[in-house]
Amino acid sequence: MKYAFIRTHQATYPVVHLCELLGVLPGSYYAWRQRPVSPREQDNACLDVHIQAVFAEHKSRYGSPRITAELHEQGTICGENRVAERMRRLGLQAKGKRKYKATTQSNHNLPVAPNLLEQHFDAEAPNQKWVSDITYVWTDEGWLYLAVVLDLYSRLVVGYALSPRIDRALVIAALQMALFRSPRGVIVHSDRGSQYCSADYQTLLK
């Protein structure tokens, strides 16, 4: 199977590097290539092409059950277990469904600052009006929350922070980065989330 892996990926990576990675000699690989390919190997190679095409078409979101169903619709008859095995050998793993992540929580009893921006999202100069919000980003290690401070004049990100926790420390860190610009009289606008209404954040604003 090591030789078959090398043959599958030699168009992308040098054979010498693949052989070194798998601990085989290049000469042994080329000797294997000279041997007649069995019907089963030919069938697997053809199936691999179809699997990779369906996997790519659906942006890596299909696992073996749905890929098998798609192949059946295309006229390629094969079992789900076989498709799962070929996907494992090809290193194809479906992306998990991402659940909705809550960001700011506006249902709280904290004091809410007056809305000084009043929907006027234009500015005549930098550091007059900033807006801040929280979003979330999927990474290989899970969800990360991203707090951003944006200058409405230039649309420039003047402050940001990342954290696995969605708390007041996240929005405070983003604002602290923005404050290195030493603004005077800037309006900082956000939603009414508990992070922004916390006493620590409001103290930093003042």
Molecular structure report:
The structure is a single chain. With 206 residues, the chain is an alpha+beta fold. The protein has two domains: 2-90, no CATH class; 129-205, 2-Layer Sandwich (Nucleotidyltransferase, domain 5). The protein is built from nine helices and four strands; from the N terminus they run H-H-H-H-H-H-E-E-E-H-E-H-H. It has a four-stranded mixed β-sheet with strand order 3-2-1-4. The mean pLDDT is 82.
Radius of gyration: 27 Å
Total domains: 2
Helix-strand pattern: HHHHHHEEEHEHH
Q: Spans of 5+ residues with little confidence (pLDDT < 50)? A: none
Which word captures the global form? elongated
Number of strands: 4
Structural class: alpha+beta
End-to-end span in angstroms?
A: 66 Å
For the biggest β-sheet, the strand order reads 3-2-1-4
Task: Give a quick precis of the structure.
The protein has 206 residues and is of the alpha+beta class.
Brief descriptors of the model:
206 residues, alpha+beta, Nucleotidyltransferase, domain 5, 9 helices, 15% strand
